[in-house]
Amino acid sequence: MMSAAKGVLGRLPVLSPWKWALLLSVLLLAYQVRALHLDDRLYFWIKTSWHETEWENRSLWLPEYRVQIDAKAVPGVSDNLSGLTYDERRDQLWAVLNNPEELLAMSKDGEVLARYPLSGFSDVEGITYLGDDLLLLTEERNQALVVVKVPAQAGALFREDYQALTLGIDLGGNQGFEGAGYDRAGDRLFVVKEHSPRKLYEIRGLKSSLQGAFNLEVIDRDEWIQSKVFATDLSSVHYDEQTGHLALLSDESKLLMELDGDGKLISFRSLLGGFAGLEDSVPQGEGLTFDDRDNLYLVSEPNLFYRFERDE
C-alpha cells in the first residue's frame, strides 16, 4: 500500500515557486471578486450604462458624484458617529452618536453647531427629518423608531417624553434597524436592517398615526433587495423627494446604490479609494443624506465627514 501511495504521489506535478505564486494570486483574485461582488458590479455597470441617457436627468445618477470634502474628522467627536439627515428649514444637518447617545446639529461643512445628550435612549444608529420640526431616531437593538421634536434650547432629550413604534422583527443582538428615510408627500418611512438578514421595510401612515389618524401598514420590500442589491449589508437609506428614488448605503461593500420607485437598480457608486475622487476607501459608512441642492453627505465611523457634489 505504501509503495502504491508513493507511486501516486510521485506522479503529482511539481510546481515551481512562481507557479505556486500565480495559483495563489488567482485564488486570491477569485475570493476578492466574490467578496466585493466585482462580477455583479461589472454586470450592473454595463446594464445601467446602457440606460444612462434615459435616467441621467431624472435620477440621482450616483456615478456623477465626486468628493469635495474627503474624510474630515468632525471636531469634538472621537468615535461612534452614525446616522445623518438634512433639515431644509434650518439648512443644516442632524447626526447621531451611539455610545454615548447624542444628537448633533451640524453645518454642511461638517462643523458641530450644537450637542444634545439623549438620556434613556439605547443604541441610536439612524436619524431622518420628518418635516414639521420632527426627527425620527432608530434604536438598533430593540428596533424602536422614536419621534422627537427638534430641540429649541440646550439640554438633554429624555426618552420617556417621546412616542415610539417598536417592531421587534428578527430580534437578536446588534443586527437591528440601522437607518431610515422618509417620504413626506406619501407619509412613507423606509427602514433598513443591517444584515442577518438584510431587510428593507416600508411603513405607511406613521406621521398621520402620530397625529391621531391611526392607520399603520408595514410592507416587507424584500424583493427589492434580494436579487438587485449586490451588497452584503445595509447601513443607511435616504428617500429623495425630487425623484421618488431610494439611496442605499453599504458599509461592508463600500457602495452607494439607487433604486427607483419600483425597486429597480438605477445607478451605483463605489466608495473604494480612487473612486469618486476619494483618496482612501470610506472605512465604515454609517449615514447618508442629500440636501435640496442635490449635494450628497456621508458620515463614517469613527468620526469622518464627507460631502460629494454632482458633476455639471
Describe the structure in your own words:
The protein is of the alpha+beta class and 312 residues long. The chain has a single domain, classed as TolB, C-terminal domain (Neuraminidase, 6 Propeller), CATH 2.120.10. It has helices at residues 2-11, 17-35, 38-50, 52-55, 206-210, 222-225; strands at 65-73, 81-87, 92-97, 102-106, 112-119, 124-131, 134-139, 144-149, 157-158, 164-166, 177-183, 188-193, 199-204, 217-220, 236-239, 246-250, 255-259, 265-270, 285-290, 296-300, 304-310.
Relevant terms:
312 residues, alpha+beta, Neuraminidase, 4-stranded antiparallel β-sheet
What count of domains describes the coordinates? 1
What would you call the structural class? alpha+beta
Arithmetic mean of pLDDT = 87
Distance between the termini: 74 Å
- Which second-level CATH architecture applies? 6 Propeller
Give the name of the CATH superfamily. Answer: TolB, C-terminal domain
